Amino acid sequence: MAKCHLGHSMAIYNGYGCWCAVDEVIAKPLDGIDECCKIHEKCYQNSSCKNMLQKYMFYPYNWTCDGLNYKVYEIVRQDKVYVSPPENRPTIKCTSVNVGCKRDMCNCDKAVVECFAKYAKPECKKVCPTTKKVVKIVGKIQRKVSELIWLQIGKEEQTDNLEVCEKK
């Protein structure tokens, strides 16, 4: 979805701030991008999925990007790259075949991508003050859950991780 609507991979948000692919963080979001991740996490928590395993193991769901059909699988997804200015972004739609948990996961993922579209693509990762101890491994060693949630991509996109922002 991110490639469709934003023109870049979700991988760049992995480990960003206090809420992007970090479990059980209760901290104030660092900026708008981090707020998008918080909203996404809360969306997952409030979904109709019966347990956390369902939420994080990716029920395959169907979606369209300006009429082209896609289906999300655990890690591999057919995806085309669209790069366009914000006013001409392709439209994401969760298809009607999604019901229950699938529908909710699709809508949560769609909402976070649309939220990210409000902000410029980050040039570096902001780090949550409560996670500074693990900053050195972000981008190198990813928990399986984080990979499934945020990467949702093929191997060629795993190099899209950002460096940690330097303090000024």
Automatic annotation (TrEMBL):
Its cofactor is Ca(2+). Its EC number is 3.1.1.4. GO terms for molecular function: calcium ion binding; phospholipase A2 activity. The keyword Secreted applies. Its main location: secreted. SUPFAM superfamilies: Phospholipase A2, PLA2. InterPro entries: PLA2, PLA2-like_dom, PLA2_Asp_AS, PLA2_histidine, PLipase_A2_dom_sf. It holds the Pfam family Phospholip_A2_1. Coiled coil: none annotated. It is found in: Secreted. It comes from the Eukaryota. Belongs to the phospholipase A2 family. This is phospholipase A2.
